[in-house]
Design goal:
Elements lengths: L2 H11 L3 H5 L2 E6 L2 H6 L13 H18 L3 E6 L15 H10 L1 H4 L9 H19 L9 E5 L8
Parallel strand pairs: 1-2, 2-3
Length: 157
């Protein structure tokens, strides 16, 4: 289910007059599947997940929320920098087995070509730069709606 489809569902769920007048907190954690599918070039990569198209999809969903959900505070959580897993030592054996399935584009798997740490860091920086540019445009700043970036998973490496 895409972020845009989820935004539509949320708008439909909160369409009553009572819901429209209440303040809402929406947290969006999005981009992990995009990061994983972007470099893999596998059969399940059905869209361009490079930073600009990614942000276009995010913008479409945020625009839908802004235009249809008054009294809403959107907390946008950026993609976790998964490259920190390279620095982890003494991981349980399960981690080594799971890496190629959980993140094939960093550790190989599913026939994709994994990115190097530097390539993944560049891709993640592109996502963060595009996210910051979009949010800082001011298009989501109203008295009854806002979007903020929650940098909970940034700079943890």
């Amino acid at each position: 289910v895409t972020l845009i489809e989820q935004a539509k569902r949320l708008v439909n769920l909160l369409s009553s007059p009572a819901d429209r007048s209440r303040w809402k907190l929406v947290t969006i954690l999005m981009g992990h599947n995009d990061v994983c599918t972007h470099p893999c070039n596998t059969t399940y990569t059905a869209f361009d997940a490079s930073p600009r198209p990614y942000m276009a999809r995010v913008a479409k969903a945020l625009d839908m929320l802004r235009d249809n959900l008054p009294n809403t505070f959107v907390n946008f959580v950026p993609v976790l920098d998964i490259t920190f897993t390279f620095d982890m030592f003494n991981k349980p054996p399960f981690c080594y087995l799971a890496h190629s399935y959980v993140c094939p584009c960093l550790f190989g798997g599913f026939g994709g070509t994994p990115l190097s740490r530097e390539e993944m860091e560049k891709l993640l920086k592109g996502y963060m730069d595009e996210t910051t540019k979009l949010i800082n445009t001011g298009r989501y700043e109203r008295d009854d709606f806002t979007v903020v970036i929650q940098p909970a998973f940034t700079n943890i490496g």
